[in-house]
Amino acid sequence: MLASGAVGVWEIVWASIVLSGSATLLALLIGLPVGYIVGAKRFIGRRAALIIFNAGMGLPPTVVGLVVAMTLSRRGPLGFMGLLYTRPAVVIAQLVIAVPVVIAITAAAVASVPRELVSQARSLGAGRLRLGVLTLSEARMGLLAAVAGGFGSIISEVGAASMVGGNLEGDTRVMTTAMMLFSRQGQYGPALALAVVLMAIVIFVNVVLTGLQTSAERWERDGG
Amino acid sequence: MHRFEWMIRRGRLVGVSLAVALVLAASGCTTPAVTPTTPEPVATSDVVLASTTSTQDSGLFDVLIPAFEKAEPQFKIKVIAVGSGEALKMGETKDADVLLVHSPAGEKKLIADGFATARNDVMYNDFLVVGPTADPASVKGSADAVTAMVAIRKAGAAGKTSFVSRGDKSGTNTKELGLWVASKIPTPTPTVDKWYLSTGQGMGETLKVAEDKGGYTLVDRATWLSMASTLPGLAIAFEKDKALFNQYGVIVIPGSKNEAGGQAFADWIVSPDAQKVIGDYGVAKYGQQLFVPNAK
Fold it and tell me: Which of B169, B200, B213 faces A173 most closely, judged by CB atoms?
């Protein structure tokens, strides 16, 4: 089935990985620090922030697509940049979808780090930066979950990618938008080939996640 | 795609029945003695009509289908609007009872391959070349459609504009590919020809890409008329050439679930009554005919 590479199936898979991969990296750059602050610090409005980011995990991609498309359109506020229907536009939309996911998972992971550990480290004279690094390294399993969760939330979404990317062949065509197209054309072969690859990626992400969780449990049980 | 269409239609049905229930509940409150008039139950069977997104977007079905269901109350039409490519595929797999598509070559192939026995002309509309209002490729005033396409390619290769293709094997896409062949231009590919973009999406989305990228595209008149007001950056660059003709045909799928219903629709749509409905459509709203009936 994958031999139907005549229609550029692998090129599409690669585009998906590159676009969703860069969006995930950018989402981590923003989401890790914000998630750490929300998870570890006590400040006014923290609860509200937690609620907002948790709700943001369920942000419908189509809504994000609509808002980003309107913003980047020639008649929109950022229209002068000419970004609509380009690869950066897809990355921006996927970034908006992935950031709340990364923040929420990071915050939960950081918040679950025992407070005694942190206060003990502080009493031993650890600086602010050192404390941050220690907390993040204690929460590392959760952080990997944030990576997988962020990537998983965007590699399989179709609404935003098609609205802001335009499904342009050899450019912004990704696995999900290509599957819609192939199915609409009645080309079930390449559509299924992409479905298999996408499922493989999603299953891989989940296997990694489950593996991490069980190894984390074992690590905790054995007293690390 | 057609599954989504089903779900949407079902969603609409739920909405409608909710609204009906609300109205009934409300009227029930004010007039306690409601005596429901039960109409004579008519056993209806569903007929699956596979057609194209552009036909559905034109709004023609909103008048055509009620007219058919009034003439033949025993049938209920379910429209699956897809690209001509998938509509023809639905004929092959017998997932549709009747097709109304505009891809004469594909229709003939379906019959040649033995999936159907006959097709009949129903109506035609025409395609337009639309592009940026400034007309960077100087397409306006071209002698014919082929000259227009050559001009777009030349300006595109010079980096002045682009052509945005549907790239989805729809009837519109098939027509466009035919024009490249007629202009003796090797069919452009997006990976090699940077001026040639392929959206693989519907007409509406493709028009939006064309407007945003300052490019030209091919569009059927019905879709253009319904969307032109939302696309101030685009204008008609070239029209009214025989090569831009768009012939619709109807095909019954033998051995489908409701072949009798499909046959009834195919017979009705070429009848004088249906042809009149088609010819009148759009005149009141747009001041011009959208489809010209031409059943023999």
Answer: B200
| Option in B85, B86, B190 nearest A169 (CB) | B190
- Of the candidates B82, B197, B209, the beta carbon closest to that of A184 is on B82
Q: Which residues of B touch A178 (CB under 8 A)?
A: 200
Give the count of beta carbons closer than 10 Å to the beta carbon of residue A131.
Answer: 16
Answer whether A185 sits within 8 Å of B86, measured CB to CB: yes
Domain count, chain A: 1
Length of chain A: 224
Chain B positions touching A8 (Cβ under 8 A) are 191
A159 in a structural domain? yes
pTM: 0.74
Say which residue, B164 or A135, is predicted with more confidence: B164
List the domains of chain B with CATH numbers.
Answer: 43-124+247-293 (3.40.190.10), 126-244 (3.40.190.10)
Cα-Cα-Cα-Cα dihedral of A194, B92, B201, B265, to 10°? -150
pLDDT in tens, B220-266: 988 898 889 999 999 999 999 989 988 999 999 999 999 999 999 99
Residues from chain A that touch B89, judged by Cβ atoms under 8 A, are 185-186
The domain that holds A77 is classified in CATH as 1.10.3720.10
Q: For residue B94, count CB atoms less than 10 angstroms from its CB and return exposed for 0-12, middle for 13-18, buried for 19 or more.
A: middle
ipTM, interface predicted TM-score of the complex: 0.78
Alpha carbon A35 to chain centroid, angstroms: 14
